[in-house]
Amino acid sequence: MSGHVWRRDGALRGRAGHAVVLLALVAALLVGPAPAHADDPAPGSTDPAQVLTATGGQRVKGTARLGRTLRVRTGRWSMPLDSLTVRWLRDGEPIVPARKAGKRRYQPTWRDVGHRLSVRITAVSGIQTVSVDTASTTKVKHLHDVRRTIRYEVRSRGNVTADLATFEKLAQQTYDDPRGWRAAGIRFVRVESGGSMTLWLAAASELPRFSAQCSSQWSCRVGRNVVVNQDRWQGASSSWNAAGGSLRDYRHLVVNHETGHFLGLGHSGCPHPGAPAPVMMQQSKGLSGCRFNPWPTAAEIAKVSP
Questions:
Q1: Which domains can be identified in the chain, with CATH numbers?
Q2: CA dihedral in degrees (137, 143, 145, 146; nearest 10)?
Q3: Would you say 289 and 251 are in contact if contact means Cβ atoms under 8 Å apart?
Q4: pLDDT computed for residue 244 by the predictor
Q5: Range in 25-29, 72-76, 183-187 the model is least confident about
Q6: For a pLDDT cut of 90, what percent of the chain falls above it?
Q7: Mutual angle of helices 164-176 and 247-262, in 10-degree steps
Q8: pTM
Q9: Contact 69, 106 (CB under 8 A)
Q10: Does residue 142 contact residue 179 with C-beta atoms inside 8 Å?
Q11: For 273-296, what is the mean pLDDT?
Q12: DSSP assignment of the chain, as one string?
């Protein structure tokens, strides 16, 4: 027999080829798999150096108060980022609209007062996406701390059919609202009796009894008495309704307007067409080109600030 082994295209053929393959299989079984190196990741795991994580510095900077600006610091990350986005949160829930809450600077609004703010930071690197939330701020404060406290009682006069408890509740909401006289640092506290002001809900026919200056058609203020006409409280005014104003906003308006008189303000006119009407403008009668507005303007707030 010849000692030569024939090959076709470099491959062993015949008995010699089979013998070589068999020897290779036996050797693999005897030796076993190649030993793992200490630096190799375990099966199914990810190299820690390639895991996207926040490594510190994510926080909100600034004072949580109306009129101030907060900033978010996006901090450090374990690897280069392809993109990074932020979303401001109020008590852990996303603030809407997103276009205002998706920037690195944020000015608290009246809706934020009394709530805590934080930021959700979302980082993307390759196929990995990681989101982390910053620590929350303290509760957002009013524009000004309390500088003056006015205690008031609530009374009714005449044939009042509106629910007085609802009147008390809604009036207090108006007084507490960050857009109202509270922005001047004035706090209104309801008491059972006494105080320095009386808030009345009165039947229309009773208004002239407070003063000859008061009309049964409108609300009025006489001395310590802030008098809301029941007809206006329940039905607003024809011009307000014709413009599509809500009854709740009208109720804000009438309480703010008559209380503004108690605070020492007189009537105002429209500053220019298209501007929000001053709350001390007689908006129930017309607007002279201004827009309906149930809240004091910045100029009016400044006039009564203690």
A1: 49-133 (2.60.40.2700), 148-304 (3.40.390.10)
A2: -140
A3: no
A4: 86
A5: 25-29
A6: 76
A7: 70
A8: 0.79
A9: yes
A10: no
A11: 93
A12: ------EETTEE-SHHHHHHHHHHHHHHHHH-SPPPPTTSPPTT---GGG---EEEEEEEES--BTT--EEEEEEEESS--SEEEEEEEETTEE-SSHHHHSSSEE---GGGBTS-EEEEEEEEETTEEEEEEPPP-SPBBPSS---EEEEEEEEEESS--S-HHHHHHHHHHHHH-TTTGGGGTEEEEE-SS-SSEEEEEE-GGGHHHH-TT--TTS-EEETTEEEEEHHHHHH--HHHHHTT--HHHHHHHHHHHHHHHHTT------SSTTSBPPTTS-TTT--TTPBP--S--HHHHHHH--
Tell me the per-residue pLDDT of 7-28, one tens digit each, with 9 for 90 and over: 444 444 444 444 433 334 334 4
Q: What is the DSSP string of 73-127?
A: EEEEESS--SEEEEEEEETTEE-SSHHHHSSSEE---GGGBTS-EEEEEEEEETT
Q: How far apart are CA 284 and CA 229, in angstroms?
A: 12
Note the pLDDT of residue 30.
45
Average pLDDT in the chain = 87
Please check the confidence at residue 232 and state whether its pLDDT lies above 80: yes
End-to-end CA distance of the chain: 120
